[in-house]
């Protein structure tokens, strides 16, 4: 069997068993139905990709790419947040073949979307966010109570919970500590600047002195060889002077002179 | 030999004069006598006479074809002239000494001699000093020892700054940059360019400063340096008329590593230039209006 035959057989088998492909059915269902479902599907996929990216960022070691990916995630979140109102409008539209319960469910899904978008980690999540996320679960866990018509805007609603005030305090403390830490870092950076300047000046000075040292080296070499020569010649000369023959002659002559002096002394006395 | 320097001098003079009895001058003996006379005069603080003696000794050495000793005598004579504040003689003697050193083939002492002359004349005759510095730098560059010329360039530029000739000073800093480039002394090079930019800014010449900055940005070494960042911050602060920022840059550690004279200019920067800053602020408003 040739490759082409295999390919055609695989194609026919796939077409035969297509109706059992769950993912494809879901896709065709969704694209067939209505705008809301389509848009919602698109939203879901985008949120999923963003979450995946967030996971990759969490494992990423390279700071620069982590920052870049976080920025992308934040952009996606902003875009999604913008499109949520559109989705909301589609959600309230009546579509044929849709029950009232499903309509209500759709509304809830749309309302839950902003919270889900916010929940995607993008590297800026901190203590302050937990105040907003503290509210989100309570909304999604009560599907039959709608947020908009929730009239419980009493004092408790806007009162800072214990947790949120704690978070705020911690935030302030951290900010102050960071400011003093920044001061320390500033001083360190100034010291390092001075050190760097001094080190590069020293480097240049040493570079300047290298050829001078080479010159000194060669000159000193010449001087030593000259000295050696001179020393050898001096040694020869001194040896010549100190040779025993000259000594004997000197002593003999000295004796003769002394003898003559003694003779004269005797004569004159 | 008599110990009276005057007698030695006259004796030496007689030795060198050609008369009927003397048909060739005895330069060796004469030079020795001149040197001894000079020492004697110096010991008795008769600097004028010592100077004359040294001049003659130097000439004697020249006659004996030993330019090195001649140059050394000339330098001592010049130092004495400096003590006596006879400035044109100082310049002359040092120049002669430098020429003799060049004859020996020793460029470093030659330029050192000119440098000493320039330093002596800095306060009194700055133009001559500048000429001497330039000549000294040229001697070193011809010999290929650019690194020694850095100090001379810096001194020359500071003399120009004292004379308030800012474009000339900046030119010298750029020449320093060229010399530094030849020896791969990147730190000195970048500091030289930053100094040139600051000097231009101090001279109220924003356009020149920007042109200078653009030129220098072509050079890799400058582009990657701290000095580049400081220069760009300074120029943007100038363009936006932001006096606070200018002061911050002037007090930063990068600028504080430059020459003392430049630091003084940098600290004075915005106040030396308020009208230009205001003009720039006006330009910003015009741009806003157009958009």
UniProtKB/TrEMBL annotation, chain A:
SMART domains: t_SNARE. PROSITE patterns: T_SNARE. Residues 121-148 are annotated as: Disordered. Coiled coil: none annotated. This is t-SNARE coiled-coil homology domain-containing protein. It comes from the Eukaryota. The chain crosses the membrane at residues 247-265. It comes from Brassica cretica. Residues 175-237 form the T-SNARE coiled-coil homology domain. It holds the Pfam family SNARE. InterPro entries: Syntaxin, T_SNARE_dom. Keywords: Membrane, Protein transport, Transmembrane, Transmembrane helix, Transport. SUPFAM superfamilies: SNARE fusion complex. Residues 128-141 have a biased composition (Low complexity).
From TrEMBL, chain B:
It holds the Pfam family SNAP. It is a peripheral membrane protein. It comes from the Eukaryota. It is found in: Membrane. Its main location: membrane. Keywords: ER-Golgi transport, Membrane, Protein transport, Transport. The keyword Membrane applies. InterPro entries: NSF_attach, TPR-like_helical_dom_sf. SUPFAM superfamilies: TPR-like. Belongs to the SNAP family. This is Gamma-soluble NSF attachment protein. It comes from Brassica cretica.
